[in-house]
Amino acid sequence: MSTATLSTNIRTNDSLDALEYRAIHTGAIAGLLLGVLSVATVVPAATNFEACLMIAPIPLLGIFVSLRSLAAIRRQPETYTGTTMAATGAFLSALFLVTGVGYGGYVYATEVPDGYERTSFTSMKPDTVEERGNIYIPPDIAALAGQQVFIKGYVRPGSHRTISDEFLLVRDNNECCFGEIDKVKYYDQIQVKLTAKQTASFDLRLYRVGGRLMINPANLGRGPEFPVYLLVADYLK
Predict the structure, then answer these.
(1) What is the DSSP code string of 47-108?
(2) Distances in whole angstroms, Cα of residue 190 to Cα of each of 156, 166, 170
(3) pLDDT tens string 30-76
(4) Which end of the chain is more exposed for a tag (fewer CB within 10 A), N or C?
């Protein structure tokens, strides 16, 4: 075997050894993991656009980490591997970001019927300054008294019959509002009376309700059996 051939074989073997011992770039692994976790952006899209926006940093970070990993692998191909992994992470992150935020934004923009003003349980809670001034009905909510409003919430179990045209709508179905009724704050619940030929049955799904908002400040402090907020509803979905 000639010297030139031997030298070529040595260089080839060295190159193969270098490729064999390349490490998977940690950014590629992290990017793929973030891409998979980004599916959480899609989960609340049909019900809670705000939740989509809160989760959106996950796919954004996944795109950043994956693209940065791809750049590092291309700069040092003899040291790192993981191109497919990083590319997959970037793709999943972008897919779930566009799907979740896009669909969530569409639902948010189209869910309020014409003639109704969007409001929420968060808006019904007075802030610290208002509470210090003994203002327990936020001015923005007080201004909606007698107006047609739209709100989303959950039917509290036990607040109605199996099928009913009157029930208690609460902010969420977690410990806040599905716990002891005495612990539910007045701004986390609203009594709903349906006027249309519609009824509600208890389940865990989110309800969209629209109707005329009534406010009874005299019920403040009287207990959960005397709701401060009442919605005479003609829309239920």
Answers:
(1) T-HHHHHHHTHHHHHHHHHHHHHHHHHHH-TTTEE-HHHHHHHHHHHHHHHHHHHHHHHHHH
(2) 10, 11, 6
(3) 999 999 999 999 999 988 898 999 999 999 999 999 999 999 999 99
(4) N
Question: Which has the higher per-residue pLDDT, 86 or 155?
Answer: 86
> Does the structure show a pLDDT above 60 at 107?
yes
Helix (H) or strand (E) holding 214: strand 207-215
More confident residue, 180 or 1: 180
Count of CB atoms situated within 10 Å of the CB of 71: 12
Question: 11-41: buried (b, 16+ CB within 10 Å) or exposed (e) per residue?
Answer: eeeeeeeeeeeeeebebbbbbbebbebbbbb
Considering the entire predicted model, what is its pTM? 0.77
CA distance readout (Å), 209 to 37, 87, 119, 217: 32, 43, 11, 22
- How far, in whole angstroms, is CA 233 from its chain's centroid? 26
Rounded CA gap, 79 and 21, in Å?
Answer: 8
